[in-house]
Amino acid sequence: MVEPSVPRHAGSAVSDGAVLRSSPRAPHVGGGPSGGHRRVVITPPRRFPLPHIGRLWEAREVFLRFAARDITLRYRQTALGVIWVVLQPLLGALVLTFVFHGVAKLPTSSVPAFAFTFPAMLAWNAFSTVSTSGSSSLVRNRDLVSKVYFPRMLVPLSTCGSASLDMLVSLVFMAGIMAYYGIVPNVSLILLPVWILVTFMFASGITLIASALMVNYRDIQYIVPFALGILVFASPIAYAVPTHYRIFYLVNPLTWIFEELRWSLIGTPAPSTLLVALSLVVPLAVFLIGAMLFEQFERGFADYI
């Protein structure tokens, strides 16, 4: 039996972040053995709480609704519609290829410049979309957050839905680029889903941190776009990292993801074992930190938003 939703508003006795669980010894109320309601015990959250997986799974329809609405709103009343899904990474990759390869003459390994740029552009678009949209998602949905109880974490995480659709369509276009340049993928292609998952995990961790902080500090809505504007040029999206500067670029986790995507899609040299290990551990750590911070701040969202 599904537990009833608990309304939440400013001044309510039920605080955000409290853990709801069914009492195993609680009797059924108002009916026979098969009827009535379960008694719900509300306990205070731990100091560093992790997300309650059961609550998130029970509210999965909320995630799907938010994701579907996000996709609809992005392309509603646009002349080109879903064509923007391909047009955005395509134009972005063309511009960066022209600037860094055509004008600056920076190297792009041994593959054509555009084929070198597009895989990294896919990861960058997913990262920037989730970070930008997710960071302001709670503020945009302040009425719902302040009046209805549900796991608030689903709101920023739902932005992964539209970003996943964008990447899926762009990967089909990437297959056409590979066919045009005669690029045949090797066995490393089977690891492509891993790098995509790592990308979304890293972006989700960042957006959980940003969205939780934006409730109290609206400066985040200016910091995130500004930081992304700098990061797009500081990340090797359209050029290979020169050897003598490589140590500086390796501080950026996106560099690891770009190299792994290129390795799987266009056959550039394989990243080192250390980078592969870091690209698996660091995004997971960022996601867990973001989830714990979000859970810690969630109890006050309705009061401050």
Report on this structure.
- Residues 1-35 have low confidence and may be disordered.
- It is built from 14 helices and 2 strands; from the N terminus they run ββαααααααααααααα.
- It is globular and about 55 Å long.
- Helix 2 (60-75) packs across helix 8, helix 3 crosses helix 4 (113-135) and helix 4 (113-135) packs across helix 12 (253-266).
- The protein has one domain.
- Strands 1-2 form a two-stranded antiparallel sheet.
- By secondary structure, the protein is mainly α.
- Helices cover 63% and strands 3% of the residues.
- The longest helix is centred in the C-terminal third of the chain and has 26 residues, at 273-298.
What's the mean pLDDT score?
A: 80
Q: How many structural units, i.e. domains? A: 1
Strand order of the largest sheet: 1-2
pLDDT < 50 runs, ≥5 residues: 1-35
**Treating each run of at least 4 consecutive H or I residues as one helix, how many helices?**
14
Shape designation:
globular
Cα distance, first to last residue? 32 Å
Structural class: mainly alpha
Radius of gyration: 22 Å
Please provide the count of β strands: 2
- Sheet with the most strands, sense and barrel status: 2 strands, antiparallel
Share of β-strand residues: under 5%
Q: What is the share of helical residues? A: 55-70%
Order of helices and strands: EEHHHHHHHHHHHHHH
